[in-house]
Amino acid sequence: MASSVPSDSKSNIATTDSPSTRPKEATESSPIAPERSSPSAAPPPPTTTTTIQIDTNFDAVEFFKGELQNEDACERAKCARRVHLIAAHIGPQRTVSVLIPVISEAIQKGGVCCDDDEVLYALALSLPNLTKHVDGRNEALVPPLECLARQDETVIRNAAVDGLVKIAETSEAICQQYCFPALVRLAAGEWFTTRVSACCLAPGLYCHCTEQQQAEVRRLFACLANDDTPMVKRAAAQQTRYLFEVVDKSSIISELLGIHRSQATDEVQDAIREACVHSTMVMAEKFTEDDNRQYTVWALTSFFTDRSWRVRLSMGKYFDRLCKALGPDLTTSDLLQPFTGLLNDPEQDVRIAAVEAVQKCVSVLSVR
């Protein structure tokens, strides 16, 4: 028989200290341990004064010349792109008298970078930016840009031509005294690359020349348009529309209609006839209705049936512009019928362009 435990014994057992009921002593590992006082912050290190010594013997132009001969091609191109920093450092006088002649010598045949296309391209882009650092003597930039306009690489020539146009826009006097003679020299160049640059340069200089010089520009351009070299003829055809934009209507009719007719009927290069579409549109926008009936309609109707699909595609793409230029009467009487042939063209791109043109020309086209 199990013996019963006295009640006072139970109470004694209940009051006996157990690990769970004993108070915990504060220790270092306990979360309630008292925080130690943090040591005082270390004093800051003593300040030292750095003295920068500037080398008074540093020659920025010599540094530029050395970088142009760097073995790393990327460093050479980077140096050419940052030529404006050299100009800002040495000032306008030394830029004109020292830096620009150094550049001209470097890009000439036999120069340190005459065969480095990356450097030449970078210089063609950078030289026009030196107008801010030559104190108005922008004519000093014409010789190196003219030299770059004679290079073989197209991108270099185009950048140089753009630079010459920017120089011409800064001053009509500079254009007439320096840029126009450069155009004449380029047009008379032995290599076709120089004559191609002349084709691209002529429209940009035209507005800034004297009347006598403008007449010479028209004469030179007509000669370039009939050049024996196919590349020059193509370049002239591509630039004709830009020249027509700045030449007055009477001069176009009296002097430039011949090159337009030869371009519209060229049997050798499809690209010339394609470019002629754009120049014809410029003429149509300048001419009256009677002028267009006499000088442009015949060319436009022939373009609709041209053997080159690119020419027909151009007619489809820009038909809405032609409608606005010619007006509803000429469009309906002379162009509407040949235009419908594009809707059945064997080339899909031509048909798509023709359909899109119809949507644009609904307000212009009229049915008699």
From TrEMBL:
Keywords of this entry: Repeat
Compositional bias per record (Polar residues), positions renumbered to this chain: 1-21
Keyword Cell cycle belongs to the record: no
SUPFAM superfamilies found in the cross-reference section: ARM repeat
UniProt key word GTP-binding: no
InterPro entries tied to this protein: ARM-like, ARM-type_fold, HEAT, HEAT_type_2, PP2A_Regulatory_Subunit_A
Region (Disordered): 1-50
GO molecular function, one term: protein phosphatase regulator activity
Compositional bias per record (Low complexity), positions renumbered to this chain: 29-40
Gene3D superfamilies registered for this protein in UniProt: Leucine-rich Repeat Variant
Record-given protein name: Serine/threonine-protein phosphatase 4 regulatory subunit 1
Origin organism lineage: Eukaryota, Sar, Alveolata, Perkinsozoa, Perkinsea
